[in-house]
Amino acid sequence: xxxxxxxxxxxxxxxxxxxxxxxxxxxxxxxxxxxxxxxxxxxxxxxxxxxxxxxxxxxxxxxxxxxxxxxxxxxxxxxxxxxxxxxxxxxxxxxxxxxxxxxxxxxxxxxxxxxxxxxxxxxxxxxxxxxxxxxxxxxxxxxxxxxxxxxxxxxxxxxxxxxxxxxxxxxxxxxxxxxxxxxxxxxxxxxxxxxxxxxxxxxxxxxxxxxxxxxxxxxxxxxxxxxxxxxxxxxxxxxxxxxxxxxxxxxxxxxxxxxxxxxxxxxxxxxxxxxxxxxxxxxxxxxxxxxxxxxxxxxxxxxxxxxxxxxxxxxxxxxxxxxxxxxxxxxxxxxxxxxxxxxxxxxxxxxxxxxxxxxxxxxxxxxxxxxxxxxxxxxxxxxxxxxxxxxxxxxxxxxxxxxxxxxxxxxxxxxxxxxxxxxxxxxxxxxxxxxxxxxxxxxxxxxxxxxxxxxxxxxxxxxxxxxxxxxxxxxxxxxxxxxxxxxxxxxxxxxxxxxxxxxxxxxxxxxxxxxxxxxxxxxxxxxxxxxxxxxxxxx
Length: 539
Description:
- There is one protein chain.
- This protein is α+β, with helices and mostly antiparallel strands.
- It is 32% helix and 27% strand.
- The chain has four domains: 27-146, Immunoglobulin-like, CATH 2.60.40; 165-196, no CATH class; 211-263 and 371-536, 3-hydroxy-3-methylglutaryl-coenzyme A Reductase, Chain A, domain 2; 269-358, Alpha-Beta Plaits.
- Strands 11, 12, 13, 14, 15, 16, 17, 18, 19 and 20 form a ten-stranded mixed sheet that branches. The chain has a five-stranded antiparallel sheet with strand order 1-2-8-5-6, with no helix packed on it.
- α6 (290-298) packs across α7 (332-349) and α11 (427-437) runs antiparallel to α14.
- This is hydroxymethylglutaryl-CoA reductase (NADPH).
C-alpha cells in the first residue's frame, strides 16, 4: 500500500515521521531537531558497561520509558539497561513507565547504561525507541564514536572540585611539564579561586592587567549625574592620558549630556522550510499567536520582557528576531533561554511542517557588528554630547573648531569608503579598557564599538560633538561583574549591583565621547605621533 504524501499540516508531519522514524510517531518534533537530544561524544565504556547520555534540549517533558534499544543493529535485553538522572537516582527500565515517569525538564540529563558489554574503539550506531510526554512515542537513531582517550591531550581536571588548590597545582605542574614555563605571576591572586566558578573553567590564576584611572568626567545624564573617575585596564601607553584630556575638555564646557533612548537584547532563531511560501505562512502564523509566544518566553524569567518579534525572510528561511528588555543584566543567556522556550512551543503547536530549526541563525549578530544592530538596537542605545567652546578647543585641545569639524567630515567619508563599522576614531579603545576593568564580556566590544559620531560647527565658533552607540552591551549584575576587582571598579562609579545599568551605559558613552574628542584633536593638530613618542610605546 502506498501512502500519498499530504501537502501540509499535521498529516504531512505524520507522514514524514513515519518514514524517517522506523514507524515510531512523533507529531511535534522535527527529526533533525529530535537528534539533538543525544549528547554526542558521551558514548564510552565504563566498569559497569557501555553508557551514553540523553539531554533535554527541547522543552519540559517526562521520560516515560524505553521500548527498544539496539546497538550496531543488535537488540539489547532491556533487563540489562539502567538509567541514572543528574541527581544520582538510578532506575531499571521496568521502573520507568507512562504511569511512573521521570521528570525530564530542559537541561536535565539521563545517563543510559547497558551493563555487561564493551564496545571497541571506533564508530557505533545506537537506535532507541522511547516515550516522552507530551510528545508520545519517539525514536532516535544516531552514530557516535568511542575514542582512545589516552591518546588525546587534555588539561587536568578534578570532577569533584576543579577550583581546589590541589586541582590548580596539578594544572600548574602539567603546564610546566608541557611548556617548560614555571609560572611566577599568574598564580598570584587575592581572592578565593572558587569565586571563579561560573566565570572561568580550568582556573590557573589571573592575567594581571595594568589599571589606570582617567578623568574624572562630569556627566549630566538621566541616570548618571556627577563626576566619575573612570577605571581603564590597558597596556597601551597614552590611552589613559588621552581619555583624561578629553574628559577635561568636557568638564571645562559643563559636562557631557547623556541619554539612553532604547533598550533591547536579541536572539534570532531561524526556521527552515521546503520553500519560501511555507516560510511566509509560518511567519504569518507566528504573528497571529504572538501574545501566547510572549507568555511562553517570559515564563522563563522574572526579568525578561519580550518587546517585539521582527521577521526577516530570505529564501526558504524564516529568521525571527526576538527583542527583550533584560534589566541590569546584559541578558544574552536570559534571552536565549526565553527564546528557546518560545520556539519549542512554536514547534509543538505549529500545524505546518518545519524542516529544521536553530536557536540562532547568526542574524542576532551576537558579538559581531551589524547594520541591523545599528538600526534596531542591541543592548543600550545611548548618546553622549557636549558643546566645546572655542577657547577649550584652541587652548586645551590645540585645534581650532573648524579643523575638528572638517577632519570629522573627512573621517566620516573615509569610514564610508572603507566599509568600517564606525566613523569614530577609536571607540573600541575606551570600551575595551572599561569593559575589562568592570567585568563586562569583553567580546561585546565587537558590537558596542559601532559608534556614530557627528560634529556641528555653531555660529559662535563653538563645536557641538555627539556620539551615539546603538549597541552598547553592558551589565552591572551577573556575569563577570561580581568578580572582586571588577566589582570594586564598578563601585568606583557607584554602579555595582542591580539598578545601575543605565547609569553605567551613560558613563561608558561619555568615556567614548572623551576619547573621540582627544584623538580627533591630536590628529587635527598633528600631535598624534608626538604624544606616543613622549608617553607611549614609541619612546
